[in-house]
Structure formats: C-alpha cells, structure tokens
User: Fold these one by one.
Assistant:
Number 1:
Amino acid sequence: MPKIIDKGAEARLLGSTFLGVDVVIKDRVRKNYRIEEIDSSIRKERTRSEARIMCAASACGARVPLVLWVGSSVLVLTRIYGAMLNRLVEGGRADGQDLFGIMSDAGRQLALLHRNGIVHGDYTTANIIVDRQHKAWIIDFGLGELTSSLESRAVDVLLMKRSVSAALYSCFLESYLSSRGYDDADKVVARLADIERRGRYQKRTLG
Amino acid sequence: MAVLGIESTAHTFGAGICEKGRILANRKIMYPIWDKGLIPAKVAEFHAANTYKVIRGALTEAGLGVADISGIGYTKGPGLGPCLSVGMVAAKTIAVKNDIPLFPVNHAVGHIEVTKQAFHVKDPLVLYVSGGNSQIVALSDERFRHYMVYGETLDVGIGNMLDSFARAAGILPAWGSEVARAALGGSYIKMPYTVKGMDFTFTGLLTFATRALENNSVRDVAYSMQETAFSMLCEATERALLLSKKKDIVVCGGVAQSDRLKQMLGSISRENRANLFAATNDLNADNGAMIALVAEKMQDSGQSYAVDDCGISQRYRLDSVKITW
C-alpha cells in the first residue's frame, strides 16, 4: 500500500514500489480554490512538463530521480533516500564543512542543468536531498522550464540566494561560476543584479 | 491621550484617531476616479483642499480637541510623492504648532497592524494586496524584527493591473471592484499563469487580457483574468504558508475587499487548518485610523523622531521597517 511521505503545496508524495523498485508517486491534487478549468490544465501541464524536464536532466547526467511512469496528474519517480538540505541548514545537523561542500555541489548541479538548457524554477534548499555520500540530488521540477533564458536562470540563482545565509550562498555561487564548460554564468549573475533592482521599491543606485 | 493618523498615499486623504488600540474616529475623502488613472499633482491639490475638513471631522467625531492628541502619525510611504507631501506637511504643521511628537509610518505596516489588532492575531502570514503592491510577508524572528518578504510581484501590483484593465475595457468607474462586477457569470478563456517560486508577475497577463478584448466579451476576459491572477496569488500564498508554518493568514490592502479573493483564501486556510482574517472594507481601503494605530505603537514602544527627520519616501519598502512592538 502506498504511504504518504509528504504533502506539499501542490502535490502529495506517496512512497511505494514499482517494478520492484522503491518509488515516490507525485500526485498533483485538485485545488478547490481555483476553477476546474485552470486547475486541471495546470495539473496536467505541470505533470507533463516536469516529466520532460526530469528526463532531460537525467540525460545530461544531473543527479535527479528517474522518471518511471507518467499519468495525467501523476508521476512515478525513483526514490532518493537522504536528508532535506533545508533541514540540515536549519538544524545545523551537518557540520560546517559538509554544508559548504554540499552547497558547492548544489552550485555545480545547477550549472550542469543550465548548461543543458534546463531551468529548475524553484531552486531552494527545500528541493535538494542530501544522500549518505553528501551528494546533492535535485527534486521537484514542477516549476521548471526547458529554456536558455538568462532571466529564468537568474531566478534560479536568486531563489537559492534568498533561501540560505550569505556565507553558504557565496560558496554556492563560487562553484556555479567556476563550473567547467559553462560560460554564461557571469551573464546570469549580471541579470540577477538587474532582477533585484527591478523588485518593487528596491533601493536603486545610479550609473 | 489619543493619537492622530494622517493618510495620503494615493487617491484617499484620511484622518483617524486611536486610543489604546481602539479606533475613535476614521474620516476620509477620495479623489473621484472615473475613466482615467491618477495624475499625482491633481490628486495632491484635491487633498490639500480637503485637509482641514477631514482632520477637523475626525477630531469632532472623536469628541476631542488638538490638546487631547499626544502623538501624530503620517504616511511616509510608499506612495505618490505629491500626495504624501500633503499629508506630511499637514501632520508637521499641527505637530510643530502644538509641540506634539511626530511619527513617520509605513503604509503597508498600517494595513497589516490594523487587521492584526482587529482580530488579536499575533504572528500571521500576510498577503498584502493593493494598487501598487502585492506581497506575501511575515514577521522575522531575527534581532532586526521586521516583515520579511516571502514572495512579491516582480512587476506591477495586482490593483494596478485590475485598474489598467478596467480602463482598457471601458469599465466605469475604472477600478478593481467594477472589474469583479463585470466578471460575474463569465466563461473561462485560457490565459498566461506566471508563478516563480513565491513570486509572480502580472504584466504578461494584462497584455494578454487587453488583446483578448478584441475577440471576446468584456465579461469573459474580466472573469478569466481575475480568476488567473487570484489563483496565482493563492498558489504563492499557500506555498509560503507551508514554508513559514504559520497558523493564521491575514489578507489586507485595497484588493482584500474582493469577496472572490477572500473566498479562495478561505478554501486554502480550511485545507491547511489555518485561520483567515480580513478586516472590514473601510479598514482595507486606505484610511487614517491604521496610521494612528501604528503611530501609537511606535510611541508606546519608545520610538521618537526629530521633526527634520520626518520626510517622505515614495519607495519606502515594508521589509526595511523595524518593528519595535
């Protein structure tokens, strides 16, 4: 019997087995606040798009769960065991060294995705699982896009910046900037500064 | 002793009076809007012409004289510069002449605190939706206690979007509540839906909706645009609710007068076992009482300002305000 692992804002996650493998079933549930037309099209489109993006991410060697099956609002994914990075950061359970190593890994993984035209869309510590080997696994591509848009890539970096301390962010950014074979990182960071200036009533500097 | 609050952010000039968190008077006058947006200089002129009448009206309503006022709050921002200046000058004039302490208040903090006070809510997740703003915030527990932004619009405020659409569609008077009326009984047309994490954008939706007017009825476009925009706000709010683990939701600001938005947020709060709080429409519309209420909290928690430091700031960000109470 599938067991509920977690309930997020848009989906519930069920643990089960599929073809003898431990899996997570991601079930996008009906949201009663929005009208049926918007709700069903969002659930269907996001499920399909998430499957497409995760397959692309697997193909380029990024650490993401494998997609085993796709339904109209259901995805079956291989299960990754480990600790959520946001819990590690909040609880300070990993020692300092580990967290910095993991943040570097998260930066490299993001550079790998971006180099291959994949944007995550919600790249925060809540969407990274750390396995026993201290490797970062990226989950939840529900807001992802297949695009090389600098703007979308910059939003990925911005969301991580907002979700961790300045020290952890600088570690993340350093590895993002120095990842091999990825030349657009500087442009992305420049765009990030633009976005931050565009935020409502942000202090703006002249020149 | 009571505190006077003066509000003049945009189309409304208001004066309110509070004592120990209780509202004694709340008077306002609104610049008449019909088919055009606001021209700041003209609105400021209107405010200046009504300043005395509104403030005097509030004192009369409360049965008080200037001698009974122990502090004066005014809106420092965010808002339209010329309009803010009128309120600031009025507040300074009364304060300096009668030697009363002056308090510069953030407009958004006013909307939030007045709702918290009305329902005795301590630590809610807040969806603040008005003409120029759309933000999801909650109090931080850092040493610099302030409202931390979880998500916000990356371009225009939702109220601005609704007003701009009203003008494009010829809806009169051109503002959000009339768009809601025009949307009744509409059918859904698919529209762009943009949520980035807990942030959202409205200009793409506005452009799409404006163009859709060429081939569709105003009713269907208004309905679809409103449903799409509110769904975006609700999705971001629900995500912030789960992330922040708050138990109460406050919705405030001008657009919080929307029954449809409150209905949708009600559904989210029930499904997440949270409570939803929305103040009455006269407190969600811009008003002076909320400014008086915050000024009183500022005064009681020991804040003080030199008259020369009391200016205005059109871009006074909510998350830069220190919360000392």
Number 2:
Amino acid sequence: MVHKVVAEQVAGGISTTAIRIRESGIERRARFRGLAEPLSLLVALAVLIGVFSLLNERFLTASNLQNVLTQSAIPLIVAVGATLVILLGSIDLSVEGVMGATGMTWILLSANSRGGADLGPWAWVIALGVALVIGVASGLIFTALKVPSFIVTLGMWYVGLGIATMLYGTDLLPRLEDEGLKGWTSRISFGLPNSFWVALLVIGLGIFVLRSTRIGRVTLAIGNSETIVRSAGLPAFRVKVAVFAIAALLSGLGGILATVQLDIGSPTVGSGVLFIVIPAVVIGGTHLGGGKGGILRTVLGVFLLTILNNGLILSGVESSYQSAVTGAILVAAIVFAAWSQRDRLQVAK
Amino acid sequence: MNDVTTTPAVLRLDSVSKSFGSNRAVRKVSLNIQSGEVIGLIGENGAGKSTLLKMLSGNYRHDEGTIAVNGREVQFRGPADALRAGIGVVHQEQSLFTNLTIAENIEVNTPMGRGGVNRLGLYNWRRLYADAAQALDLIGSHLNPKTRVSDLSFVDRQMVEIARAIRVSAASHTTPLVILDEPTAILERTETAILEREISKLRDIGSVIFVSHRLDEVMRICDRVVVMRDGELIADRPVDDVTEEELFRLMVGRETHAAVRNRRSIEATSSPIISIHDLTRAGSYADVSIDAYPGRVLAILGTSGSGRESVVRAVFGAEGFDSGSVSIAGYSGHQLSIKRAVDLGVGYVPAERKTEGMVGEMPADQNITLTHPGSAAVGPFELPRRRLSLARMWFEKLDIRPREPLHMLQDFSGGNQQKVVLAKWLNSSNLKALVLDHPLRGLDPGAAETVNAQIRSVCDGGTAIILIPDTIDEALDIADDIVVMRDGRISGVFDLGHDNPATLDLLERML
C-alpha cells in the first residue's frame, strides 16, 4: 500500500516535468523545421547566383535578371498547379499537352496570319475551357475509375498534343497579328516583365487557396491520409477533381502565354516545361507522397532551375552538354533535398 | 419511459443486438451510463467490443433493441448523427491529419458555415483557433492550436482526439460521451499516467467509456467495469467489488496459469550469445554493455528517452552505432546489417508491427515463411502445399485465430498478427536470439499470455531473448535478467536468480 502511494507520487511528479519538457520540445522543433528547409534552398540559390556572377559579369545585370524572370514566369504558373496535384499525392504529367492544345485553340481564335475568326476575349474563355475539359477528364478518370494519376495524365499529355496537332493541320504556321500582344510577356511594367506579374498573381492566389480555403486544406489532408479524409466525411472526390481542373487551367494559361511569347502557334509550345516544373516542386521540398510542402518552396525551386539554365548558357557551357549537365545537377539536388526524408529502414519505393 | 424527476441516463442500451450473416457479434446488450461516470469496457479480441462501439459511433446500425441518448431514442445513420448526439469516439488507430494544425483536426467535423470555415469554404483562422482552443480548454489541455500534429507526442495526439470528440457536443451544450478505444495501448508508462489524469478530468464535463486491455489501468481509472465475452455482456460491476484476477477470469473464461518462473543465476560456465560492449551512439546512448545468455530472458527497462529501443535495433542491424561492438554468436564486426544478423540467427519482432513486422497484403502463411522458408522450400522454390501445412502447424501451436492461413494478414486481429510475426522467426532452424520490441503492445490479456508462454518455451529451448517490455510488471513476470537504462546509460543490472528488485527500485533507476 505504502509503495502504491509513493509510486503514484513519483508518477505525478513525472507528468508535470514531462509535460513541460514536451511543450518546450514542440516549440523548438517547430521553429527549427519552419526555418531550416527554405533556408537551405535560399543558401543554394545565393551560392548559384554568386558562382555565376563570378563566371560572367553579364549575369548580374538588370536586363539579364529581367530575362530570368520572364523565363521563369511560365514554369512558375504551371508549377503552382503541379504543387497542388503533388500535395494530393498524385502527379500531373499532362502539362505540355494541355499547353499545346490551349495555345493552339487560343491563337486560332485570335487575330492570326491564317485569318479566321477573331473572337478577342472569347478566345481566352474557349481556350481555357479546353484546358478545363482536359483537367476535369483527368480528374474524373483518376478519381472515379481509380486509375493511377501517373498513367491518366501521361495519356492526357498525348491527347492534348493530338488536339493541338489536329488544330494545327497542314496549313501554314499561325502567326500572332495583334501588335499590342506581340512581345507583351517580356515587356516591362513597374520594373518587372508582364508575364512575371501574372505569375505573381497566380502564386498569390495559389498560396491563398492552399492556406485558407477548404479545397486547399482538404488537398493537404488527402495527401496525409485519404482514408481519414473519407471517414471524416470530407469531400475527397470533389476536391481531387477540382485540383486536377485547377492544374490544367494553369497549364492552359501557361500555354497561352507561351504562344504569345513565341509569337506563333505550335503544338509543342510547352516543350521542356514539365522537366522544370516537376523537379522544381520536388527540390522545393514538397513530398511526392503528398501532404507536405508548399507553393513558396516550389517558387524557390523554379528560380533555382531557371537560374541554373540561364547561368550555364551565359557561362558558355556548350548547348550539347547542357541537358546532361542540368540533368546531373538535378539528380544531385534531389538526393540532397530528400536526404532527411529517408525512411528509418532506408526503404524506398 | 424515464422518470421525469431524475436526469435520464446519458446512454441507455436496451437488449441491443447486431449480426453479420449467421455470426451474432453482439447479443442483447443492455447498459446504462450516467453523467460523470467512467465505464471500463473489457473483453478479449473478438468479444464484440468493437462492434458495440461501432454501433454507438454510427458506423453500424443495430438490428434489434433500442439505443437512447439523454433519454431520447436514436437511430444513427452515420458518424455525423452520433457526433451531434454527443458521442465522440477516439479510435485505437489514430485518425489525425499529422500535417495539419491541431485546430483543423479538432474542427474537422464542424459543418461549413458554423465554425471557422464559412459556407464558401474560406477559412477564418482566428475563429478556427479560438474554437479549437475552447475545446482544448474544456478538457484542461493547454496545447497551442496552431501547432502541427506531427510535432506532438502520442499522448498529446490523444488529447487532440479527445478534444475533437467533445467538440460537437460542446458547441450544442449537450453532455458528451467520449469513447476511448484502447488509448493507452501504445503509450509509455509516464505518458499513460498523464492520460489517466486527463481522463479523470472528463468526469466533470461528461461520461467516458474506456476500453483497455490493461486491467490495472481499468481498475485505477474507472468507476464501473463491464465485461463482454462472445458478444454478450456478462458482468457489470463497480470497481470496488472486483479484483484484477476476477476480471481476468470473467474475460477469458479461465484462471491465469502464468506459473511463477523458476529462476537461476547465470552459470559461470555459459557464454553469452549476444554481447554488446561499450556501444555508443551520439545523442542516443553511450557506453552500453549488455550480455544476453542462452535460455534467459533479458528485459531492458527505461522511459522513452532512455535509448533502449535504439540499442536493441542496433543489435539487429536496423540502426547504426558510432563506437563499441556487438558480437553475435562469436561473430563480431562493425558493419552489422539486418541481413548479417538474420544469417547469424537473430530474430526481431518490431514495435511497429504494421510497417516493419509484416506484409499485410500477403496471406498469413506466406508471412510465416518469408524469412525462413524451412521445410516449405525446395532449392530456391517454395511449395505452396508444404507452406500451407507448415503454417497450419504454427496456427495450431500458437492458437492463431481464425485458422485460415490463406487469409490476408491484415484481416487478422492485432494479437493474431503478432503471433504470425513471432512464427516467422520461430520457423528458423537456427534461432539463437530473439529480440522483442514491445511484443505485447495492443494485445488482450489472453493473447498476451499465449505470446508470453511461447516466448518462455523458445527461451527454454536455449534461445537468448532480449525484451523491451511495455511495463515493469511484464519484466518482473517473464525476465531472468533486467537491465535498466536512463538517459542513454545503464543505471542498473539485476540477475533475478539472486537479486529481487522491487518495482520502486526499478522505477527510480528509470527516472
């Protein structure tokens, strides 16, 4: 009996100290985690900028920086959507196909060298409608038929390319005729390129959606555990379809801007974007398994890769080596970024 | 129906039954719970506890009988109905979004437009945090609702689950009934003490149904204990009128036959099978030397920061170490891998059974022959028929139920899964040492006894056992040697052949 009393006193003592230790631990860990990951990305970015500016004095000029921002704008817009999809634990590979289909639809319905209809703003609506249809189709096939998103969107990539190629037909290249739009993307307003302003708007909206809307929060929840989402009665189905639709809309917007930038309509207007977007999301630290990550990190990832590309060109790396160099750096960066997330037993699937 | 002058029972079950096909999972259960009561619900796996709870949480509908909450008869069509009636369940498997904040997890059941999320789905974080803080406050927790759940320890996560369970009823000012389904199964001793205190506080705001396999805990926390066996409620007693032994007998239907272990001191002539020498891992443990002898169970005690789990995992090669040595059956090397450890005859039953101990999507028989195919193998091939008969033998020997070795392992109950994991190692012809990391976690007393009996018989066959027990009592019950660790260092070594440490002795060395 005496023992029991003493033991209970001891246990009482533990619980108060244990609580205190625990609570301070929680705060410390949270603060550390909040800083550590973005910080290492910023350091990498700074190192990269430092190295390239030493290699070539043209790198750190206003005109080149504006150039970098213009180059990063379209990947940024697409990457916001890709981040949302990856936060679900899925992946969207249809990016380039959607860009092609949307871009072609848009230019053929705007003032172009082939003539035809000039629907003005309606061209935007219809073109983005095409993107939306592809996105909703991917989302529905993925969610309702439970086909892995990897396969669905890989197919949709080619469906999009196919639509773009059919629209392109055998006629001459459609050229942009509207003088106000030509070169609009790289024109500077208030110190930044126009397309970058669009990207900033999309990033802002993306952060808002992810942070303060039901779609965003349920997206994170699905990435964490879809079983719990369903048993909690949250709208998993609708959110998944919506996220694929949002991602396709953003790819579509990217496709239109890329067409404006290129001046001509081409089915392969999005070529190379996927290779920046997905790695940028991963380098940013968003888990491919879903649930963890964010849009600002992805933004850093896109900058890292765009600057890498830009810097390599300026440093005189021969273009034939460039893709091999970029690829190798990419793999290294991902190994580095994912190091802390390895499993306890070091199992990877 | 109810007398108007007395307050109606928070929950009243009147001969409630539920069948699945021909299987009558719950038979004519009647139960009354008053406000402020903490009821212990005990029973072996398969006794019908889970089915009963699922009817209360709205996951199943009852076939017969009536369920009344606060004097009104209810028909739950889903979990949302149960929550609205004030019944919140904290499930055994944690159901929190670890990547989201505490607040969002607590508010997850609050409909849009009524809490921090408006009808358009936009979040008002200030409102969300305030509502969650209020729910936490009700149960006396001071966790910051902005904290992410992944930063919390298990006991804090349980608090968040409890806060979520009472959230809906708190908003509508009804008395909540919180159902806790084995909340302490995975907690360390000190954490359990904290949770026990918190559960007692719930008395002031509502009532609790507490499901646990640890009878001592039930005796400490609850006012009344109800026992289920074979779908029936066979006893309903105030805790003051029963003993632990009596509860065990009611639950299992037989006496405990845990014989007192006949212990001897380590013989001077025997040499250790596993010898850990000055093992150190920065930040985890330092200078740990432990010898495990054949035919002896060595239990390592310590709290969650003691480093005992890491030491044990190092022995199996699952975690690295910085300096020192581990020698297994004469082999000693710095590069110990899991493969090498298995080849040397070490088996490991991990604490994380679901992720490290078993392949749930594979039939039980294939799990058994996974590491050591034994007689099922012919060269590099496995003969399904031999594998099946081998599995049947283990199913019989370890009383694994149901006797269906071809069923997916994930469909078995926790206790039976654990027995399959154990069989996987016992199937080795060359098992020299068995490392058991919380082997009884989540098992009901009946299953725990079978597992313990099997551990003893393996041990008596000359295998060295290294055990990380859940409780001090478990160690005193089964071990021959006890090593106590505190803050990564050994703080006590006892050979139970001649030492007789009291529980308090051991506890003091742990803290």
Number 3:
Amino acid sequence: MTKSILSILLLFILGLQQGTTPKVIHTTELNTLITPLDKKVHVINFWATWCRPCIEELPDFEAIHQELDKKAKVSLISLDPASKAESHVGPFLKKKEITADSYLLDEVDFDAWIPIVDSSWSGALPATLIIFPSGKKVFHEGKYSKEELEGIILKGKH
Amino acid sequence: MKTLKKSWLLLLAPFLIWAFTQEENNGYKIGETVKSFTLKNTIDDKMVSLDDYKDKEGVIVIFTCNHCPYAKAYEDRIIALAKAHASDFPVVAISSNDQDSYPEDGPEAMKKQAKEKSYPFPYLFDETQEQAKLFGATKTPHVYLLKREGKKFNVAYIGAIDDNYQDASKVKKHYLEDAIKALKSNQKPSPAETKAIGCSIKWKKQ
C-alpha cells in the first residue's frame, strides 16, 4: 500500500518536473492541430530555442494564452531537434514560464509538411497560423506583436 | 453616388487582392533571369561579380550566415558541394543579415569563419540587403541554382539542399544535387522548388 502511494507520489513529482517538456509530435498530429473542430480561435506558433525573434515574441503568445483563454487556444510548436525536447526545450519553456500547450514537431523533411501549414510559408521562423471557427486561416511569416495578435483574434483584423 | 462609389470598390477589389498577395511572392521565379550583381568577398576583400562565372555551366547561390544553426548544420555540406562542383556549378555564398543586430554575421566575423573552415567559395556580404530582396531570399540557408544560358543566368531551382538538416548520413532526397544532375542532362529540375525551415534573414530596422 505504502509502496503504491509512494509510486503515485513519485509519478506526480516526475509529472510536475516534466510539465513543460513539449509533446513530441509528427505530421499526423500536426494535421489534427491545424484542423480544429471547436469554437475557439486557434493560434499556432512555430518557433525554436535558437531563433531570437521567436523568443522575443514568446511572452506575447503566453499572454494571449492567459488573457484570452476563453476565446483563443494557443499552441506552440518547437522545431528544435527531438533529441533536445527534454534536455533543452523543456527547461527553456520552464525558465520562460510558458504554460501554453507545447509541442515539438519531429519531422526533418520540411518540404513534406511546410505546404500543409500554408502554401506561402517559405520556411523562415517565426511563423504563425491563426484559424478561426469559420475555417478562415490567417498565416504570417515573421514576428507578431501582442496588439496585432489581439486585433486578429478579437476583431479578425489582419 | 453612393452606389457608384461602392461599385468602384468592387471593381478595385481584385486588384487590391492581387496587390496584397504580390507582397509575399516577390523575388526571382523559376526561369527568370538574375540581374548581375557585384559584392565584396569578405575573405579577400575583392569584388566578385556574377559575370565572373560566364565560363561555367551555372552558379549555386546560397544565402547563408554564421549564426544560424541550420546554416551551421549545412556548412560542411556546402563546402563539399563547392569542392565537387568547382568546375561546373561553383558555389557563391551570400550573407545579407543586418550586422547591427547580429554582429556575429558581420563582414569581420564572416572573414574569420571562412578562414577557419577554409571556405573554397567566396563569402559575399550583401550589406544593403538588395540581393536578398531581389532574389526573394527569406531565410538561411536558402539556395538558388542558376543555369547559364548564353550570357544570362536563369533560376533553375529554389529551396533546400536536401531533406535532412540534422543528419547528412540520413538524407534520402538530395534536392540540390538532383537539380544539378537534371541540368547536366538538359532536363528541368523536378522538384524545381522545395521548402525548408531556416532562420529568417535579419532585415535592417526601417
């Protein structure tokens, strides 16, 4: 009995520690993410730990996640190597206090999946895809400010 | 009068949409002729011009830089490419990053990096960022394979070097090598364009 309580506790502690490690996903899960079925505005940001402009805008995405959580759903997709998910990306997100849903896309054949996200995406980071409940999509290659994000999510302005 | 105004807007709409979408697609397209350019080679401070390559079959123009992990991951592969194709399709590397925000990509740092790794190709600094804009380069590395036709250099392939930046030994599709092979057998590269993740080119602040 004590043993099982201990193991549950241990799992709980491990769970807490790994709370920020991004979920490693592949093209199938990416497809699911970019075809949401609920009534929220989905904000999907592609980033990497080595990308300075990406890191600069991360707090804005986190703020949107916290402030507009009834209306919008933020998903952060890291393009760091999968081998660094736990050692690198997780601790980085923890340090930046990111609580938005976090993934790491483990696909190196970029040409196979970049066009699925948006045909106009050249592959430069950062990049953000915003999907409205109507199915309308807004794609942007480059940085977003918090004001721009709010404008798009709340008023559909872009 | 009001309805007239509205109908004008309707007439304008397709143009506005066109003008809006144009913004994202500028730069040389497949088949287009590249304007000749002359930029300073950071390795020896001599000027290098596209016209210097008129005795070659074409040129591999690669927008790259020092700091980007993807550029670093491809550095050795670019060196190997340059050695393999010195006589037919030489490599010309260009860095267009803003040196104010990224001093590690400035000409002095470029020279240092090129000397350390003994680059067998010129490493040009596009200080005004004009070439990146003309080519439509958005990231590093971003490859433009040019085929010489008479005195002109036409774009034959745009995109990635291959399909695995992480591990050169696991590459399945050698996009650029295949495109060069196609040109050498007088065929059009297929695919003529591929996409890859890269670090965005760091534009100067307006």
Number 4:
Amino acid sequence: MSADDRLRELANRVRKHKGVGEFDRFVPGTRLREDLGFDSLDLAEFTVRIEQRCGVDVFAAGVVHTWGEVVARVEQHDRSTARGA
Amino acid sequence: MHKTVLITGVSRGLGLACARRLLEGGWRVCGVSRSESAEWSALARAHAGMTEWRSWDLERTERIEAGVQEFLPLTRPVHALVNNAAVAYDDLATNVSLARLEAMLAVNVVAPMMITRAVIRNMLCHEVRGSIIHISSVSVRSGARGLAMYAASKGAMEAFSRGIAQEWGPRGIRSNCVVPGYMETEMTAGLTADQRTRIRRQAALRRETDVESVAATVGFLLGDESSAITGQEIVVDAGLS
C-alpha cells in the first residue's frame, strides 16, 4: 500500500473519531487544518497514528501544514528504511 | 481484558503499595525503578504474568523516550500512569547546589513530563480514556524549612497536571494529583523523632499519613468510579494541612 493510501486511511480514522464524514479529495495542497478540519488535538492523534503505522514522527523535523508535506516525510522515511534493510 | 498501568518508583514505599493494590484490583502493572527490590520481586512472583519491570534511571531524561518505546510501544495500549518516583532535596535555599538541584528537577519534573507525553500519545493511538496521577506533596501548600526546592518541583507537577487535564479532557484523558502528608517511607527516613512528634501533633488525626490510604486514593482515581474527577489535587495527609 502506498504512503498516500496508508495516510488517507489514518486521516479518515481521525475524522471518524471526531464524528465527521470521510474526506476523499486529497491532493498535495490539501491543508490539514482548514481542509481536513483538524485542530491541534486531532493533529496530535494523526501524528501518533502515523508513528504507529509508518514508524515516523512526521512533526519531529518541524511543523507540516499540507497533505503533500506529510506524504513526503513518510515516503522519505520509507526510502531510508528500505536502504537500511 | 486487564488494563495496564505504568508506575514509576515501583520498588518500594508508595509505588510498591500502589502496585499491590492495583494488582489486587486486576490491573496489569508495568513498573520501573532504578533497582529491583526484594519486596517488588515477591509481589511480582505472587502475581505471575501480571507484572513487568524495567530498570530506569529517571535522571537520564534523554533515555526516557527510547525506554518507553521499548517497554510500552505504541502497539500496546496503556490505560493509566502513576508518576510516583521522586527524590528529596533537603537544604536551605542559600546552600543550593546546582548539580543536585538539576538532578532533582530531572527526576521530579522533566522525567514525569516526558513519560506523560509518551503515555498520552499511546492513549490517543488506542482511543483510551485514561487516567494519570502525579504524586505531589503537602509541602507545596504548607512550606517547610529546607524543602523549598523539593516543594517547588512538586508545585510544578501540580500546575502541569491541571494543564494536562484541560488540554486532554476533550479526549477523555484525566489528570489528577494525590497530595500525601508525611508518610513513613524511605524518603522521610531522615526525620528525627522530634520532627515526627511535631508532625503528629500538627495533624488533626494525630498521626502520620499511612501509605495504604494514599495508595487507595490512587486506586480510586484510576478507576471508573472517579470518571468525573480531573484537574484536582486530592490531599491525603491525616489533617495536616
């Protein structure tokens, strides 16, 4: 499963947890707060879900704002893990 | 399913009493302390399969994140935390040693904050409506000669606990402090007979605080019966303050 697909699943789990419907218009420019509707607690939950599933803290290297930035950090982690394997 | 609680300073005193009570209540106890005491080993044997233990030196705050990831990875749900471990630093403010002060703040403030961080992240991952207890001290309220630095470290944790309660309440995570009076533990072993007598006279119940009473309060605050209590400091001090 691609990083993008895994992250979509996790983002929608956070949205489901907060009682809002599924989001299906993910593009690199999708904004986590304004478009996905994530507040700071949702972002914290999204971060730990990513860490559990993908093994990387996407906020550790600085704040991310858009979907494209999150996907890029997970893909970068996937590549470095594959190189180290 | 058994719920899992992480207890720091589990090898003796209040930490051990909390572990015993929670094990009897069906909790699975993950305990950490610098060394493994005979009392903890005996308790672990009596509750085989329900305890796990790791040696953590909380002064080494840079190791906490890795320690938590090894002991309680995000794949394993944690339901409660008892931040109990602490060191006392008894001296006049004019005599403060920077090295001893920093070591105490590492164990009493920085370490519990970092452990709380890890536990809340774990709770978010598993949608756990968990409970966090910080053990404070009656010295935060009363003040006492020689305990200014120690009391300040505990006061910091009370402020932290109230902040955590407000911050994570919307996710059902609770945070409270239990504030014991003077207990007969290793930490107060240095008190003289005169000091103990004076403390007893000042307490409404004319005695020191018994460890079991404090452990029972911790157990109550971790359980569902206290589900509406958060952001509080519960004083258990035999009427000292």
